[in-house]
Amino acid sequence: MSDELIEAPEDGQQITLADEETGELNVPENPIIPIIHGDGIGTDVGPAAQTVLNAAAEATGRSIAWMRVYAGSSAREKYDENLPQETVDAIRHYRVAIKGPLTTPVGAGFRSLNVALRKKLDLYANVRPTYHLNGVPSPVKDPSAMDLITFRENTEDVYAGIEWEAGTDEVEQVKAFVEDEMGFDSTIHDGPVGIGVKPITEFGSKRLIREAIDYAIANNRDTVTLVHKGNIMKFTEGAFRDWGYEVAEEEYGENVITEDELWDEYDGEQPDGTVVVNDRIADNMLQQLLTRTGEYSVIATMNLNGDYMSDAAGAQIGGLGIAPGANFGHGRCLAEPVHGSAPKYAGEDKVNPTAMILSGREMLDYLGWHDAANLVRDAVEETISSGKVTYDLHRQIEGGEKLSTSEFAEAVVENIETLAN
Ligand code: NAD
Fold first, then answer.
1. Are the CB atoms for 157 and 198 separated by under 8 Å?
2. Who is most buried in 147, 218, 220, 321, counting CB within 10 A?
3. Is 365 left (phi over 0), alpha (psi -120 to 50) or beta?
4. How far is CA 368 from the centre of its chain?
5. What is the reported pTM?
6. pLDDT at position 404 over 70
7. Is 151 helix (H, G, I), strand (E, B) or coil?
8. How far is CA 111 from CA 108, 116, 162, 297, in A?
9. Which of 43, 334, 341, 357 to mutate to test the pocket of ligand 1 (most atoms within 8 A of CB)?
10. Which DSSP state fits 344?
11. Whole-angstrom Cα distance, residue 58 to residue 270?
């Protein structure tokens, strides 16, 4: 790695290692953690999250040695490229990292750096917890019913980037192949066309679904719901569902039962300690999340559905300013908020850093620092429920004190210190 980009660790700072065979982390008390602040509001929420995570680490007798790494506009300015190899290497090497949002141009321009980063590191599971914090305004009657973890497949589906632009030779070749050789004549309208490919593999589906089931078992969750549009896309989304049931039936013994088995063999009475795997069609699921919120606990789904589902669920618990996430694969964790770079608010010290802070909480949990992780959650909740909020929540509540991004982070730090003592 180039010294220019990545500062060498100072004496005493250590690296988080994983056991070669088990993948189990060996976390020092002062790990080096790479951070990408990101584009747009990343420059506001990145430092705010660092302040809070430092306080939580310190309050639990540890420290974090941050390593700034670059992607997006800051990398372009410094190194004339969007995603320097050193940044990817740093996350690979140090195993646990956090990033802010990166801007992706619509239409022309470069492909998503987020997608590129997740693919390069094969971080195949994008995990988005959706839970309600007291005091956060919500458009629904009972936001506390929402306690959902979405496992979104991160490497394939229409996000794989296999697509061709209208007017190119390539798209005409693909069109000719589909029509003439594969027999889909007159299925595609005449005239300019863009074509994309939606790969859904057994390998990609099963490893994601295993992560979701393992999580449900480890965290005493009752159900895992496979969300798909297999009634229409039979051989891609339908196959995802079928492979999900195969994993459930073949790999987990009696710990995991399907919804059919629940009714056929147990009369609908779920045996203690089991996880029920069921499935729902994606459009119906978006309704169910609103109308039968409490019935869903863990979702496993493909890339595009996962993006939609988790944003819709996030709207019920306070929106993009709140919703955290993290990417996992091969014993690595890259935490990141669900929201994007919201360019119009960039650098204004205005937006809500909660989503980035709570993404950091996911990272602390992954490090095994559960006490610090809980402290972060409790301190954020305490801050918001006392009416100290950023503009996005302030306009939705009566009274309250409107804070800037950095003031909000300081208020959370104060609560961490109070709660820890
Ligand atoms: P966005 O999430 O950036 O912003 C949409 C709106 O949500 C904002 O205008 C703002 O009103 C609100 N919002 C978002 N974050 C907030 C916060 N922390 N506090 C308060 N309000 C907040 O979505 P967009 O406008 O669709 O995308 C902007 C750019 O971000 C695009 O280039 C997009 O590709 C990129 N993006 C990146 C990621 C990522 O890095 N993981 C994710 C989504 C979008």
1. yes
2. 321
3. alpha
4. 18
5. 0.92
6. yes
7. strand
8. 9, 8, 11, 33
9. 341
10. G
11. 43
- Looking at ligand 1, which atom is closest to the CA of residue 355? 18
Alpha helices in 121-192 (DSSP H): 169-176
What is the token pair recorded at 135? 């005091």
Which two tokens mark 337? 């908020």
CA distances, 156 to each of 82, 118, 240, 242, 298 (Å):
22, 11, 12, 17, 20
How long is the chain? 421
Ligand 1 centre to CA of 321 (Å) is 9
pLDDT digits (tens, 9 = 90+) for 174-219: 999 999 999 998 889 999 999 999 999 999 999 999 999 999 999 9
Whose CA is closest to atom 6 on ligand 1? 342
Report the C-alpha gap between 129 and 362 in whole angstroms.
9
395-101-45 Cα angle (round to 5): 50
CA 340–ligand 1 middle distance (angstroms): 3
Ligand 1, CB cutoff 6 Å, lining residues: 41, 45, 101-104, 114, 320-321, 336, 339-342, 351-352, 355, 392
Distance of CA 150 to the CA centre of its chain: 8
Say how far apart CA 279 and CA 301 lie, in whole Å.
Answer: 10
> What's the maximum distance between 2 C-alpha atoms anywhere in the chain?
72
Q: How many whole angstroms from 28 Cα to the centroid of ligand 1?
A: 34
What ranges in 277-317 are assigned the alpha helix state H? Answer: 282-291, 303-315
CA angle 116, 120, 122 (to 5 degrees): 110
Interstrand relation of 326-329 and 332-335 (parallel, antiparallel or unpaired)? antiparallel
Phi, psi of 420, rounded to the nearest 5 degrees: -75, -20
DSSP structure class, residue 144: G
User: pLDDT of 61-101, one tens digit each?
Assistant: 999 999 999 999 999 999 889 999 999 999 999 999 999 99
What's the gap in Å between 48 CA and the centre of ligand 1? 17
Please tell me whether residue 276 adopts helix, strand or coil conformation. Answer: strand
CA distance 133 to 118: 29
Decide if 408 contacts 352 (C-beta within 8 A): yes
β-sheet bridge partners, residue 401: 388
